[in-house]
Amino acid sequence: MAEAAQDRNLQRPSNRVGERLRYYLPTLAVAVGVLLVWELGVRMFNIQQFLLPKPSAILEALVNEIRLFITPGQGSILFQAAGATLWAAFGGFCLGCGAGVLVALVTARWTIISEAAMPFAIAANSVPIIAFAPIMNNWFGTTNPASKMAIVAIIVFFPTMINTVRGLTLIDARQLELMQSYAATPIKILLALRIPNALPYIFSALRVASSLSVIGAVVAEFFGGQRAMLGVFITQEAASFRFDRAWTGIIMASLIGLSFYFVMLWLERWLMPWHTTFRETD
User: Fold this and answer.
1) pTM over 0.85
2) Is 8 helix (H, G, I), strand (E, B) or coil?
């Protein structure tokens, strides 16, 4: 019995690796297929670079930027821009999501505030990003990273607040009655019942906000900023007809967004190992 259990434990990591490979194989196959069709289509139909550059040209431009980045005494504007955009997205993400959770705790405590504030939150969430960019640039300055952080904070604030309020209020009435029957204080109910119930809602909002933060930062940079910002880098390279380099900026923005998203997934799994979603996948 002990030997059989040990054999199962030894086989489990390899089984997990195989399952992971089978899970991601269709995604990798689709990605490779799209790139091949893209490359062959551009070559066969002689599509001009200003319309759509070849993936091989984009890869070459990206490799050149990496070479400049790792060469002592050199510098890569692309990686400087990626760092500035990452900082703006991260700062706005922390400010907006933190404020969204705090406001949700207040509004969920008093029903009248939640009912009065929720329609305004939904309406403000529907405002396009470009409506905030000129205002924030005027308040903080076009080249000030705080203007981009403010735009990102506004964008991620409302999804986080709305989801957190739902998680704090949509609880099982029987569990609430049980805690009240034991004379639990509102703080105890909040910590032991409402916040654990709201965690899946909060992390669902954080996953969405992780992508929105990068989108908001890049779009805000389209309206002006320092040279070393991805939005400015993309617009200037496209205006100079260096579209392969412009696409490298798009790739860097995508990598930042994916990194944010996977960090949120890791935090969710680390803070909520008890959730049924993770128990079923283990």
Assistant:
1) no
2) helix
